[in-house]
Amino acid sequence: MADGRTPGGGGEDGFPPVGPASAVRPFLVTAGRVAGAGEASSGRTMPVETQLVATTDGLDALDGLSFERHDIVAACRQPQSIAEIAARLKLHLNVVRVLAEDLRTAGQLSVHVPDSGVTHDASVLRRLIDGLRAIPDSRGVLRDSD
Length: 146
Known about the structure:
Layout: H1 26-29, H2 37-42, E1 51-54, H3 56-60, H4 67-75, E2 80-81, H5 82-89, H6 93-105, E3 109-112, H7 116-119, H8 122-133
Antiparallel strand pairs: 1-2, 1-3
């Protein structure tokens, strides 16, 4: 799509630049929920490294989705982690978790949780921390390392 909100835009990485963070409070976006439909029943939250991919149903329903749900499904045309989506869309991690679980329950996202043995590897965690530090803050300033 050429609406400026989907991959393939004008940014260096193929994604359009993201504007300032939303002033809408996270509890308004999730209607006060702290867990998505599946998380509420299982009691488990998705790890930040969980990969999300839009399903065919999700892409077909894209025009009918509103606001953040639309942006999440559009960003997931390519596999993205919860952390990447939160950073790219400037949303709180738990907001992305709740909405991603709702979208998974609706069949609009496919969720791939990595093997827990791999996520405890210190090198994976170090790369994740380095990647998060490489994301500039709202002023465009990179975070300092340890």
